[in-house]
Amino acid sequence: MKPLRAIVTGGATNIGLAITEALLATGGRVAVGQPDPSVAAPLVQRHGDRVVAFQVDVGDPAQCRRFVDEAAARLGGVDILVNNAAISGPGSGRLLAEIDPAHVDLLFRVNIGGVLFCSQAAVPHLRRAGGGVIVHIASINGFWPQRGSMVYASTKAAVVSITQSMAKELAGDKIRVVAVAPGDIRIDSSERLERELKERGVGSDVINQTPLGQGKPQDVADVVAFLCSDGARFVTGTTWIVDGGLLA
Q1: Residue of 185, 180, 226, 228 whose CA lies nearest to 207
Q2: φ, ψ of residue 34 in degrees (nearest 5)
Q3: Which residues, at least 6 apart from 67, have a Cβ–Cβ distance to it below 8 Å?
Q4: For the chain, what percent of residues have pLDDT higher than 90?
Q5: What angle do CA 218, 222, 223 make, to 5 degrees?
Q6: DSSP string of the chain?
Q7: Contact (Cβ atoms closer than 8 angstroms) between residue 112 and residue 162
Q8: How confident is the model at residue 44 (pLDDT cuts 50, 70, 90)?
Q9: Which of 11, 73, 78, 248 has CA 20 to 30 A from 212's CA?
Q10: CA triplet 27, 29, 32: central angle to 5 degrees?
Q11: What CA–CA distance (Å, rounded) separates 15 from 185?
């Protein structure tokens, strides 16, 4: 089996970093896209030329296309795209009275536009490879919105819907499209988010309410790696919830 060639947006930090490491563990090569590609330096030091890093703002369609095309050129093609980059965590939540056009534009442009335009850019490369996998990172907020996060939650609900539509459209090209919806996952901004919610007097519907306890980025990454494997060859158009039983 040939080593898989993957692109991961936001692939050098938090859940994206765990996804990159999980895909590298399969023997593949990964191109990561970050607003500041220097954050990928530790990855490159650990894995050498199996990791390539590029600058990208996924909220800009032109940058999405440039990033994907340059990544494909460096990798020699594309087998997997993981749309992980998003506006989330501290600063992404707003109460109804606080929502303004700039907030809506930013979250829709990055969280929805980034998924659409990176996928659009990747499809020709996936077709040339004879098929492949696109994974969108959604959120349990797409099914169970938190208080004070209605715009963010709506973008993740859109990602769930996009996954279904895109899977139907691309099935004939042997391109599977799946989403993964993480629950309460501990990342480096979790403490800051908890403080922000407390300061704003907004109770959390998620934090410290998971039957299996708070998850780790690796819990999400392992599911993504499986969905990208032949073991999930008959899985498309669905969203896998990785929430430790929160929605049970």
Answers
A1: 185
A2: -140, 150
A3: 7, 33, 54, 55, 56, 58, 118, 121
A4: 82
A5: 120
A6: -PPPEEEEETTTSHHHHHHHHHHHTTT-EEEEEESSGGGGHHHHHHHGGGEEEEE--TTSHHHHHHHHHHHHHHHTS-SEEEE-----STTS-B-GGG--HHHHHHHIIIIIHHHHHHHHHHHHHHHHTT-EEEEEE--GGGTSPPTTBHHHHHHHHHHHHHHHHHHHHHGGGTEEEEEEEE-SB--TTHHHHHHHHHHHT---SSTT--TT--B-HHHHHHHHHHHTSGGGTT--S-EEEESTTTT-
A7: yes
A8: very high
A9: 11
A10: 135
A11: 8
Which residue type is seen at 137?
A: I
- pTM for the model stands at 0.92
Q: Cα–Cα distance between 106 and 92 in angstroms, integer?
A: 10
How many other C-beta atoms lie within 10 A of the C-beta of residue 114? 30
Separation between Cα atoms, residue 103 and residue 106, nearest integer Å: 5
Residue 3's pLDDT band, with cuts at 50, 70 and 90, is: confident
User: Taking the CA of residue 210 as centre, how many other CA atoms within 13 Å lie in the half-sphere pointing to its CB?
Assistant: 19
User: How many residues appear in the chain?
Assistant: 248
Task: Tell me which residues are annotated as active site.
Answer: 152
| Region of 9 on the Ramachandran plot (φ > 0 left; ψ -120 to 50 alpha; else beta) | beta
Whether 193 shows a pLDDT value over 60: the answer reads: no
Burial class (CB in 10 A: 0-12, 13-18, 19+), 103: middle
pLDDT digits (tens, 9 = 90+) for 98-116: 999 999 999 999 999 999 9
